[in-house]
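Hi R.,

Here's the chain you asked about this morning:
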Amino acid sequence: MFDAEFGSRSRSLMMRGVVVLALLGIGIKLGDMQLVNEVIYGKKSEDITTRIFVQQPLRGEIFDRYGNVMVENGPAYEVSVIPNEFKSDQIGPLANLLQMDSVDIARRIKIGIAISPYLPVRLKRDISFAALSAIEEHLKDFSGVYFDIQPKRVYVGKAKAAHILGFTKEISEQQLETLGDYYQPGDIVGYNGLEASYETILRGQKGYKYLAVNAQGQVVGSYDDGRLDVPSQDGDDLYLSVDEGLQAMAESLMVGRRGAVVALDPNNGQVLAMTSAPDFNPSVFSGYTSRAEWNKLINDPDHPLFNRATMAALPPGSTFKMVLATAALEGNVIDTNWTVHCTGSMLYGGRVFHCDKAHGTVNIIRAIEVSCNVFFYNLMLKVGFQAWTKYGRMYGFGEKTGIDLQDESPGIMPSEQYFNQIFGKDRWTNGYLLSLAIGQGEVSATPLQMAAYVMAISNFGKYYQPHLVRFIKNQRTGKIYYTQYSERTLPISREVLDKVREGMYYVVNGDRGTGVAARIPGVTVAGKTGTAQNPHGKDHAWFVAFAPFDHPKIAMAVLVENAGYGGAVAAPIARQLIQYYLNERKTVHEVEPSNGIVADAAVR
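And here is the predicted structure, written out as tokens:
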């Protein structure tokens, strides 16, 4: 039988002959390739492979409120391996060249294989030029090893701002399991500070480049003319509220101390400066961080990585007296005519509660000015636990401020329920409340909370969510995304806040004020000192302040741990910072983009 499609037997035979001749030609060619030219064609097919090169995007840059660059990107050499091309007996020689532990290299490769044996595994970043030269010299001795130039963080500002900016670090095994499929072993990720809070915005999107590579690891051309390549997209830039000059001064004033400074703009809650001491140099993490360097930081007894501004929840001492004053005046428990006679101490429940001196007869304004404990002991007994807790929570104590950083403590704002839980119902007495009246005992607050508290007092009850990022700029589109933050008005009358503010005015400007060290010629400063008892050493020094009194432009809290009296130690620090911000800094204009769209509040 023949195929009727061809129409005739002769035509069918003719077509079959053509097929046979064609197959014969192909066979001869294959023979030529496999036998005659085996050396040429065989070697090419064995040598040429395709590799996927990951193109790391540039992380977004970070600027202060005036457009000064605080963090940018610089080049760094790094070495990677392709697991399915790399041979295990090469680990030892490569470890010697990289000055790495061979066990660490093996572990990294094992993790990489579990994800994909064909994707590169980064072994070490920011290698020295000497190490790079040695590897390049011995590259022919290794298979699947290559080096590349990738970006690293460069901190160029005059302020370290370590706890604000945070740092980037090689992703950990735990983070690989929790942060999603975007990341591969050896990737860099924001570890804390804004680098972590805004990680998905700063990081950008990876690109992928397909290249033809020979057995010596040399790129011989792009694969498929680059049609499969995916370009990387750089991350977005952050424009902060931080005044870099004020930040640098705050850092310099806290050198050699332990504590924190937080300064806010009372008109919007923007963070003007925030420093925690001691701090660290974030540049340590911009390249390769050895295990020894990391262990030195985390084992430092002063805990430089700990952000005291947002995490150090300590008794606030007498700076907390305005909470009780607010509760008493707003609740009409007393007025300014109500007085207490202070003899220097008070006997209650068989126990003596002390004051720093005998203040004589004082009303609430004078009691704030001279920081009379006896007045506030008596006032607490009149106001009661519930009202004190109510107004403390109103000012934001006992909960996080919501600042755009990941690490923040809510502190403790005690209540009757809280006391019942920790002491047992009916196991505590009103004697416990006297310590709370003066910011001692179980109450605790962070410097950030204290700055937000005095901000609300300074602007007659407007509480703005403290924040660091003003807006985000997309480098690809040029669009501006304004970040949104909450605000609320405290249900406290202006008349009450007028009286509280008056007391704070006299703390700095009165004839018996405890904060006279914060006076500035030509600037009216209001404040409150605090000396918080510390069972483990010297007292902690606190000072909260705002200025100018009539039209506040800055509100702040200063904490110096184990330093003694707040008026002698913390107040002078606040004075210098307020003096700089209001009188000494150069007149510069804030960066205000002309175009933009409003983003969601939860942009990070």
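One quick note: Residues 1-46, 598-604 have pLDDT under 50 and may be disordered.

Cheers,
M.
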